[in-house]
Amino acid sequence: MDFTEKTTKKETIFEGKIVDLSVHDVTLPDGRSSKREVINHSGAVAVVAVTPEGKIVMVKQYRKPLEKPLVEIPAGKLEGTDSPEETAARELKEETGYTAGRLQKIASFYTSPGFADEIVHLYEAFELKAGEPETEEDEFIELMEVSVKEADELIQREEIHDAKTMYAVQYVKTIPGQR
């Protein structure tokens, strides 16, 4: 079966700094019509960084849509012509001060494919070197380094409550010696 929905009309409702919102009139595979609200996002990166001591590098920051702080792995939006790998290196440095001697892509995944096209590229950082964070002027971030056990506890307390970070914690558990 062909599942394709053909867009017959597209109306842009909002263009923002982070996302754009459009409404699409579509023809469904069976010929009926419907509407789809679509959020367009340039994409993002997230970085799994584990210190030589076995601690996962994380940041705590307030998330306005949730009205609470969350503990997350370093992440950020793709901008301009920067590649996902360049963006991962930049975000790791900006948010944590760490630089990576090498980055390796783990996976890419969509965050909410029912209404958004945001894709997150997940990288693992190797050969970490500590430094000073270079946060943006509107970012208030607390650097954290947590063990896998502590990360599991933060998940249970819903302080880690986003998919990319929960994925990252599970990924770290697959690294020999990191349970």
TrEMBL record:
It comes from the Bacteria. Its cofactor is Mg(2+). It comes from Marinococcus luteus. GO terms for cellular component: cytosol. Pfam families: NUDIX (PF00293). The keyword Hydrolase applies. Keywords: Hydrolase. Gene3D superfamilies: Nucleoside Triphosphate Pyrophosphohydrolase. One of its GO terms (biological process) is nucleoside phosphate metabolic process. The lineage of its organism: Bacteria, Bacillati, Bacillota, Bacilli, Bacillales. Residues 39-168 form the Nudix hydrolase domain. GO terms for molecular function: hydrolase activity. This is ADP-ribose pyrophosphatase. The keyword Transcription regulation does not apply. Transmembrane segments: none annotated. PROSITE patterns: NUDIX.
